[in-house]
UniProtKB/TrEMBL annotation:
PANTHER family: ACETOLACTATE SYNTHASE CATALYTIC SUBUNIT, MITOCHONDRIAL, THIAMINE PYROPHOSPHATE ENZYMES
Lineage of the organism: Bacteria, Bacillati, Actinomycetota, Actinomycetes, Micrococcales
InterPro entries named in the record: Acetolactate_synth_lsu, AHAS_TPP, DHS-like_NAD/FAD-binding_dom, THDP-binding, Thiamin_PyroP_enz_cen_dom, Thiamin_PyroP_enz_TPP-bd_dom, TPP-bd_CS, TPP_enz
Name of the protein in its database record: Acetolactate synthase
GO biological process: isoleucine biosynthetic process; L-valine biosynthetic process
UniProt feature, compositional bias: Low complexity: 11-24
Amino acid sequence: MVQGPHPAPPRSVVRPVRAAADVPSPVDEAADAQRRVGPEKVTGAQSIVRSLEEAGVEVVFGIPGGAILPTYDPLMDSKSVRHILVRHEQGGGHAAAGYAYSSGKVGVTMATSGPGATNLVTAIADANMDSVPMVAITGQVGAPMIGTDAFQEADIVGITLPITKHNYLVTDADDIPRTIAEAFHIARSGRPGPVLVDIAKSAMQAQTTFSWPQEIALPGYHPVTKPHAKQIREAARLLATSRRPVLYVGGGIVRSRASELLRRLTDLSGAPVVTTLMARGALPDSHPQNLGMPGMHGTVAAVAALQKADLVVALGARFDDRVTGKLSSFAPNATVVHADIDPAEIGKNKRADVPIVGDLREVIADLLPELEREHGQHGRPDLEAWWQQLDAWRETFPLGYDEPTDGHLAPQHVISRIGEISGPDAIYVAGVGQHQMWAAQFIRYERPDSWVNSGGLGTMGFSVPAAMGAKVGDPSRTVWSIDGDGCFQMTNQELATCTINEIPIKVAVVNNSSLGMVRQWQTLFYESRYSNTDLHTGHGTARVPDFVKLADAYGAVGLRCETKADVDATIKRALEIDDRPVVVDFTVSRDAMVWPMVAAGVSNDDIQYARGISPAWDRED
């Protein structure tokens, strides 16, 4: 075995609202001039563009169409908003998400009515599940035609109501600036998420005055950021007196930009840390207290630590089923402290003994001095026996893989070498499936903004457009799309967008000629009956399609690697090309599996280290 790396709140008033909180306002001179000369006389379409400029938008990913067309005309004249024409609305939505990941700003996507808007649904749902700040602007048929089944009409507000943080239907041009200002504020504040603004074509064509609001008043919307002091004191007491604590860290740490505070808490507490799929990089993998990823394909040490803990401190985590396994048997002996900015998450799946509502930056900032006070009063907890057990699990059950016997590459080797050669400053954007899990396992993440993936929704086709958006959001960094041959075929048309717009992403197609994760389940649970999982993309005489030729057709560079001896040179060659996208077809074994594994609905106690090999917890205890 080859070893790998290790209910109604008070009225909320916000002022001013011109740009994202962490983005310098682009408005000052223009706003001052506006106040001097009075409101601008514009069309609703021009008001949309002016609103985007005032909100600090730099990039919009979109596709024009009939209902949104009035907005595309003034958009052409904007000096500060760059529009990138994508090839599919879903790609535009995922690109906006990737942009939000790498830039820290609100991602923006734009589409027309009907099928244009419905093509955004998957990307919106994806952003909602993973708390990605996004604003989607869609055109709608003219207000008099709404509800008549007009050409290209769809009730996108109704369709997206369950999968957005909030959404709007705008039929009055005078409402455009206020609505867009509110949309950006809602998208980025509290628990981030997608907001949809659907604007009738008649509102775009109407005459109005543009006046950017100097404050936002949203009765009933007032996210709590400051935690309750009593709950913080109790959490500190428990952390200072526990003998088997675990810090269970979720994606909320990354969203709140609290990674440095997390490191200080880790060092002060002495507790082991597990980072979920959405939190990879929140604590450097090189940190000695990082046990890796928990859950269905987590490390044995991380899964076992949660099962045997007497205290679980959950920070921005959802107790997702892919982490907990059979919920009734998850962390059975642990007291639970659960901190999250979204009160709806606390107690939703797992009862919290100490619920803490607040922004994690403020939660940890308040927790640190309280924990120091507890240590001063009672001394530091004795965690030596706990660490002896944890280190034994790490040593006995490291991440690893078997070399293939079919002559093809080990996908784990390919992915680990991409990480090692490209380094920790690169951004790695995964699709969904086996390659996603291997990328989470075998690349070492040292910073919180280096890992991008579709965690909650598990969206095939996420990787290429999200990588494109990530590269636009931070052009200085190398961006790898680590994709599967199945995922790649869903959205690879965005290679054209990358080529034309000079967005030089790298795409590693981990090509096992299969829907790999589905095939793994068929192997394990369906007696190796491989029903409709062979994609014919890499094994055998014909390649349908040939990814190297496909890359060439899109104006990208296509490379192929089929032998272990060529892996490093191929990766280095891809890194040398920086004037266009690169696609590397790595032909890997279709029999490779993701281990460790906890089967769906099974207790985490039954984790398998490899096929037929399960740790004997009782003997170890």
